[in-house]
Amino acid sequence: MLSEEDPIEVLLSAIEHFSYCPRQCALIHVEQSYSENIHTVRGTLAHERVDSGERTARVGVVVRRDVPLWSERLWVRGKADSVEFYGNVPYPVEYKVGAPKGNHAALQLCAQGLCLEEMLGVPVPAGAIFYHKVRRRVEVEFSPQLRADTEAVIHAIRETLVQQILPEAPNDARCPQCSLLQVCLPHVVSEAHRIGGLQAALFHPYGDVDD
Fold this sequence. Notes:
- By secondary structure, the chain is α/β, with parallel strands linked by helices.
- It folds into 2 domains: about 160 residues, Lambda Exonuclease, Chain A (Alpha-Beta Complex); about 45 residues, no CATH class.
- The chain is built from 8 helices and 6 strands.
- Helix 4 crosses helix 5.
- The longest helix is centred in the C-terminal third of the chain and has 20 residues.
């Protein structure tokens, strides 16, 4: 159990959220906002079908699903969709519903590798992401740079949680597909003059409105 002196824990799932959009991460993990859309439902169904995601048999490989992970050094916790064991070497595998895009998922996967290294006391040099849309597995090497980037994101998330920060809305191409579009309202909050107009329309002190 965490004491008041312990750092705030960061969920592994927050890493991809923050890398993709810091505001999305804060809405979920600071304001506890969440909403479903077709993309999140597809993602949930894809994770429920992890056992049938890949049919290729690997002789001598032990596979564990839904593996709890944690790191006391980084104060992160969560679960791995799947961990394959090649002898005593763990190989985390993350399942994503879409196609490869950016390194957001790679950061989350690398964090899983860091947890496994600490938990098992063995090097974890790489992992993989299986993308359902293209039915392809992409290997990710946990390079020194990716490890450093992953830890930097974890620290940035923790700072957001500690300070209860809600970053500015990006209002760009990412927004229309986001399940939190109606919570975030990027087209409104990113334009100060629109906020002022809405505030004026919502609030009129007594004496300012004609009878």
